[in-house]
Amino acid sequence: MPCIIIAEAGVNHNGSLEHAKTLIEVAAAAGADYVKFQTFKAEKLVSKTAKKADYQKANLQGQNQDDSQYQMLKKLELDIAAHQVLIQHCAAYNIRFLSTAFDLESMDLLHDLGMDLYKIPSGEITNLPYLKKIGGYGKPIILSTGMSNLADIENALQVLLDAGSSRDQITVLHCNTEYPTPMQDVNLRAMQSIQAAFGVKVGYSDHTLGITIPIAAVAMGAVCIEKHFTLSKDLPGPDHRASLEPDELKVMVKGIRDIELALGNGIKQPSPSEIKNRPIARKSIHLAHPCAQGHILRLEDLIMKRPGYGISPMDLLRVLGRQLKQDLKEEHLLSWKDLDV
User: Fold this and answer.
1) Full residue range of the structural domain in which residue 132 is found
2) Residue-wise pLDDT tens digits, 165-208
3) Same domain flag for 65 and 96
4) Would you give the end-to-end CA distance of the chain in angstroms?
5) At 145, which CATH number?
6) Are residues 13 and 122 both part of a single domain?
7) Is 89 part of a structural domain of the chain?
8) Which of 37, 205, 270, 317 could cross-link to 99 by cystine, CB 3.0-4.6 Å?
9) ∠ CA 7-180-186, rounded to 5°
10) Does 57 reside within a domain?
């Protein structure tokens, strides 16, 4: 089954519905499966005294001097009418709409809009009421696990299962919640540890710069990749600088699809494209010098050279000690008809 690629628009629309629609068009043109936004009410998500994260301050680079997460997020809300417009726009561009709810009211909004897939962000992995509500929908779930250990993941999974979800409906994404993630902190092998520990489908939500790590994750077994993207890294906002620009997103999707093809079926056998090259690249038994009729072949009479149309060097022991039926020149490519029984 092809890897699900989620192009994470998040809040990179900067509160503009037109920007959000353009992000949908970019994600569709890149070949992503889903374009994902964020659904929240700032007053339900964060207290008015909560400070911005260090990465948010760094990415804003003085664009907004207010230190309040609430004021930042309030400007990035999408109301129900905006959601309806974006869902219709996704349908027009043949890409699926997805959004992450950050509070129970927003979850109701998405449920009423007919969401068929629910994404749990890393910050909600310890939110018991949130997990119970999503688990109760009985729909496919993608669970991000930034800042978590295996015990956190186990606890969250148990809540989802107890609420009514089935294990085969859940995909767990390894994730590091730092924007951008330093390479030494990626720890891609943790994705495989999650799979081994819980027997779930796994994927990777990426916050590194560039596209190499999500492509590597697919090679390691990820069935879902999530990656932030933007119209421009120079736009004001908390996530733009750690996001891909449109051309980079397109290259990432192409790279993932190439890796999927390259992984193959695991059966080691000649491929259709290479089989024609086998006689060209392999060697056959040739004569190292001229030999007369009746000559009994010895090892020093023979040399292994391309092409491989003649007797295989693997049959050397069957050739040694046999007589030649006729005079043969140097470099003659031996065949069984040249030899006496």
Assistant:
1) 4-263
2) 999 999 999 999 999 999 999 999 999 999 999 999 999 999 99
3) yes
4) 55
5) 3.20.20.70
6) yes
7) yes
8) 37
9) 90
10) yes
